[in-house]
Amino acid sequence: SKMLPGRMMATMALLVTVQGFVVTPNAVTFLRSTSLIAGSTTRAMSLSGGSPTMATKGGKREAVKGFFKDLLFPIPKATAPDAALEFASTCFFPTEFHKVPLIQVKDVNYDTKVFTFGLPEGVSLDLPVCACLLVQGFDDSGEAAIRPYTPTSSNDQKGSFDLMVKIYEKGVVSQWLNHLKVGTMVGFKHIAFNIKSPYPFAGKTKINMICGGTGITPMYQALHKIVNTPGDTLEVTLLCGNRSPADILLRKELATAVEKSGGRVKVVHVVGDKPDMPPIPGWTGELGWVDEEKVKKHCFAPASDVLTLVCGVPGLYDVMCGPRTEPEVKAGSVLYKLGYTKEMVSKM
User: Following DSSP, what letter does each residue of 114-170 receive, concatenated?
Assistant: First the structure.
């Protein structure tokens, strides 16, 4: 109550909840006069003479609830970082952490969510393709934990950007994000190390994409750019592994990319939680894990004009090409044995 102006407290006193929201004519008149209520919310509050009327049905009730939530707990506005700071690219974020608000959270499936973060009005994230952001999260003891995430929104989106995050049981930053309240300020930065083989992939005509789980996000970022750039002639094969059909992320968006590509893009889904995965009813795609046999079967063979992008959990990197932090293709890894060199591989 100490935080609310006296007139607002007086107005709130006029509101009574009875199986929903009861709104008096005086309350609506006041809110209209102070421009605090949107037209859609005003329509949700129906008035009958001098008697209060409940807005209790579906979207109307949610509109009223949302209005008062925004009124009492406004989301902070995003601000631009100091222009004097160092920037690694055209990206909105500098090379040191700058905080923006979490403005929305949506469920994708049983363990994955899309977190939307605010930017100043009309401003694009303007992140290079392929590149990612670093998110500053915290562990249970309050110690900072930094993780890379690639947005699934394009640079055409203004005023916000989206991160698709799989919530791992023991994932420090994913669990931290999962428990954030809308309105929380979150730190992001963008550094040169996280700009990987930027589009348009100079000297390359064919692109392999090998990923698992949310490793699909940088692949989708690149695919979106490839199929939406007039005159682009790149050919792409995406080999994507998941535990089950229900775990496949961005499935519709990938199908759309294939349709728009005019035959230049092929997507191969591999499903299974073990190498010798038995048949799954209704599933006609590849089974098991993304392995040497499937890479050899589906991907473009090693060549100077071929680039292979890899992204996933540490185990995927280890098997395919070696740790993400090491530029060399690890001896004994799948890509090494098939003849791919470090000039042909980019660890996302």
Answer: EEEEE-STT-B----SSB-EEEEEE-TTS-EEEEEE-BSS-TT-BSEEEEEEE--TT
Q: Which residue has tokens 């055409």?
A: 156
Say if residue 293's pLDDT is above 80: yes
How far, CA to CA in Å, does 172 sit from each of 111, 149, 167, 336? 15, 14, 9, 32
8 A C-beta contact, residue 138 and residue 166:
no
| Pairing, β 112-118 against β 98-109 | antiparallel
Helices within 154-290 (DSSP H only): 172-178, 216-227, 251-260
β-strands 53-55, 21-23: how paired?
Answer: antiparallel
CA distance 145 to 134: 10
pTM of the prediction? 0.78
237 in Cβ contact with 264 (< 8 Å): no
Q: What is the Cα–Cα distance from 27 to 236, expressed in whole angstroms?
A: 58
d(C-alpha 308, C-alpha 336), whole Å = 12
> Residues of 238-275 as b/e, b for ≥16 C-beta within 10 angstroms?
bbbbbeeeebbbbeeebeebbeebeebbebbbbbbeee
Strands 185-189 and 98-109: antiparallel
Percent of the chain with pLDDT over 70: 79
Contact 163, 149 (CB under 8 A): yes
